[in-house]
Model the fold of this input.
Amino acid sequence: MQLDRVLADFTRYLSAERGFSEHTVRSYRSDVVNLLAFAAESGATESRDIDLELLRGWLWRSSTAGLAKSTLARRAATARALTTWLARTGDTPTNAASRLRAPKADRHLPRVLTRDQIDGILSELAGRAAEGEPIALRDLAIIELLYASALRVSELTGLDQRDVDLSNLTVRVVGKGSKERVVPFGVPAEEALVAWSSARAAWSGSGATPALFLGARGGRLGTRAVYRLVTRLLESVPGGGPSGPHALRHTAATHLLDGGADLRAVQEMLGHASLGTTQIYTHVSTQRLRESYALAHPRA
Done:
């Protein structure tokens, strides 16, 4: 296969067959663009020219460019996914990246808000929504649901009205790999969703889309709008780390474990394929315990 065809065909494969999220596809596509540019510089013209030596050279250049270990690890994952696909389709005789190694990504503990901080944010939003302004009601419902159900932002924006079961206080979401799961939420989120549903019915253009959350023009709310909302809410909250919607997912998971929830139940709720991914939150809980101990115990 000519290299100029690889990008488009591989991107379609990630979306249609692997069911990757828009964000993941965009990241992989960016990596492949960079790889193909490097391959072209090296004189490669066809997919069979992408061998282990070329891939190692690409990662070496990436590392000398000062990229983070996490980015290098993702680029290695992209290369493995690409060469696996090429080998499966018969465009290369072997999987060139099967022996490719990259430095392990640095594992940082996620940002987690305290109970008082999340309560303060929700109280502020509830105050704005008390006047009945539709956007304020929508924003309150978004944050309540993100925190109550620990959803990914793509899962939240992908929700349709029919996915919410108010009688059972559950929401049906489609996560990574197009895997479907049912996640619970609490009474505060229910009340916020009911109030938003009433406001949504009067929203201009709301009848044209089944989406649960709407943007300014009446279409499905985009992930960037949710990022802007959460970032704005967290900018005045003390604490370091990312300030996007994932901070609320991290916060919900940690608060569940702090409250005694079973690790495997949290894994199922989050939609993690591996229990090891969920275990990062046990480290957060342990760190919080150590900090509280150091502050409170007379013999700390």
In short: Residues 51 and 143 are 47 Å apart (CA to CA). The chain has two domains: 3-88, 115-296. DSSP finds 13 helices and three strands in the chain.
